[in-house]
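Researcher: I'm preparing a figure for a lab meeting and need a structural model of a single chain. I don't have an experimental structure, so a prediction will have to do for now. The sequence is pasted below. Please return the structure as tokens so I can convert it later.
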Amino acid sequence: MLALIGLAGLLDTLRHADARVATVAWRLQTANVADCRDTAPLPGFSIDMLDQYRDSERAEAQATLALREWPQISAVVPGSAAAKAGIRVGDEIVAVNDVPMPRAQGGRPSYERTALAAAAITAGLARPPAKLGLRARTVYISGDPGCKSEVQLVPGPRLDAQADGHYVRLSGAMYEFTTNDAELAFAVAHELAHNLFPEAHRVAGGGKRQRAAELAADRLAIAMMARAGYDTGAVIPLLERLARRRRLSWLDGTHPAWQPRIAAAAAAVAAFSAPAR
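Model: Understood. Here is the structure written out token by token.
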């Protein structure tokens, strides 16, 4: 589908996807903060930098997104502290607490400068309020209390989602596979659970303990969805479609067989049901 649209349209589509993922993640993380051991103030916005794009894409990114040398706000979560502070998509952050932000350097595409900029924002929010020097004005922001984890949407054709203890990474293919915000919330919440709750922590090498962690992540994700007001009834249709695609297979020993996994998820849905909002 994405191959059928021009680069400018693709960049706009990716920005929209980033905004959806950021909003779903923020809603899950803030609604479940009371149950998370590790918490942090969440900025309520995402950033983009020119260095992330290939040489062949940078001219269009400059023309379509007005990306320049500074980190740019690519998404603002409605209702977040950032939105209330008047931060807008397209704002450029030139400094945090009067310390200049990393600038795009060109060369090979890399998220390194974006990661440095995100780390500077996180450090600033650790002692609120953080002073954000934007190109045309100054904004003070304290963030929103939330479960501590970074959530990213990354391009890729593989139907996959991963958690490494700090980051949650959702592939573009998995994003497109979900059909609504509730299904997207389960995909994000399952990986957040791996990062946030000891009983769902990933176990190296697979085996029985890892399969138990996957079941725990499903159950915790459904509870997180319910607290955030998402329709938990979306979980079983998503898992059934994944099973038909035979992805996240039990054959490698890291995931339970689909039939008992779906049955366990159905029991959790019955226990933690919530109406859509």
